[in-house]
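Cont'd.
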Amino acid sequence: MMTAQAKIPENTDLELDYSEAFHFPQGMAGFSDAREFGFIYEGHGNIVCIQSIDQPEAAFLLTPWDEERLGSTPVLANDLCDCLAIKDQKQVMWMLVLNPFADEQWVTANLKAPIALNLETRLGVQCIRQDPDLDIRYQWMQQPA
Amino acid sequence: MLVLRRKIGQAIQINENIRIVIQDVQNEHIVRIGIEAPLDVPVHRMEIYNLIQQENKSAGGVNALKWLKGKGASHDDSSSENT
């Protein structure tokens, strides 16, 4: 197993399996050097943390797109399909970036820039959508006590 | 800032692999441009990109995993989604 170490809060070393990392060819907006991400599941509901291996300060909480609440998933633009090596839109797994720090009462979700993943090729991209009506801080769930 | 004058159909080359072509000028104020760039170069309207950049910096960071390990753990018992 190829592993990589990332420094996370309080200088704890976190060991991530490189072979299971997802490659984000475009990085994340604001963290363009963060290209390799390990997924960390702590067993809490359907929230996962993606931790950058190459830019330790880049870590995000993700949760799957919920069609019941949000309607059907977005359509991935052709250039991003190429970026993820996607041949069929059904291959795309959509996830939302959660922000637990923006609001005291709510954990918010960014509907304007969800994450598209290809689980087969382990590629990911943050897809910035142009629709001005999309919430950047959609009230996703109440802050846990 | 480098400022260049270009006519419709003319292009600007950046590095080996990025090309910007002036497509059209509408109503004297709106310029349509075409951009060819490698797949690993994100191209966005600046005002939207800046918004997402700020939101990512607010949402993502060294405290994300800490939150998940701490507060996120109590989410398991929570059924308080905003439906």
